[in-house]
């Protein structure tokens, strides 16, 4: 099991990353899809960090250089 991020709602890092990979772009969206951070709120800074880190690491375009033969 991955490390728990939200103890109140038993949401682990793997679940949060999965939601980010599916297109979530904000902590609010993570809350809506997982319930993480909706109880005591103590995990919100960590969720914010995961969202920020994912945005920095996420590929922004084609990973291969395309050769059109020109």
From TrEMBL:
InterPro entries: BFD-associated_ferredoxin, BFD-like_2Fe2S-bd_dom, BFD-like_2Fe2S-bd_dom_sf. The keyword Electron transport applies. One of its GO terms (molecular function) is 2 iron, 2 sulfur cluster binding. Keywords: 2Fe-2S, Electron transport, Iron, Iron-sulfur, Metal-binding, Transport. The keyword Hydrolase does not apply. Residues 4-51 form the BFD-like [2Fe-2S]-binding domain. Pfam families: Fer2_BFD (PF04324). Belongs to the Bfd family. This is Bacterioferritin-associated ferredoxin.
């Amino acid at each position: 099991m991955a490390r728990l991020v939200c103890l109140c709602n038993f949401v682990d890092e793997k679940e949060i990353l999965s939601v980010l990979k599916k297109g979530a772009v904000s902590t609010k969206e993570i809350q809506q899809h997982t319930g993480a951070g909706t109880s005591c709120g103590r995990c919100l800074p960590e969720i914010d960090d995961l969202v920020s880190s994912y945005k920095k690491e996420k590929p922004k375009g084609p990973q291969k250089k395309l050769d059109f033969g020109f």
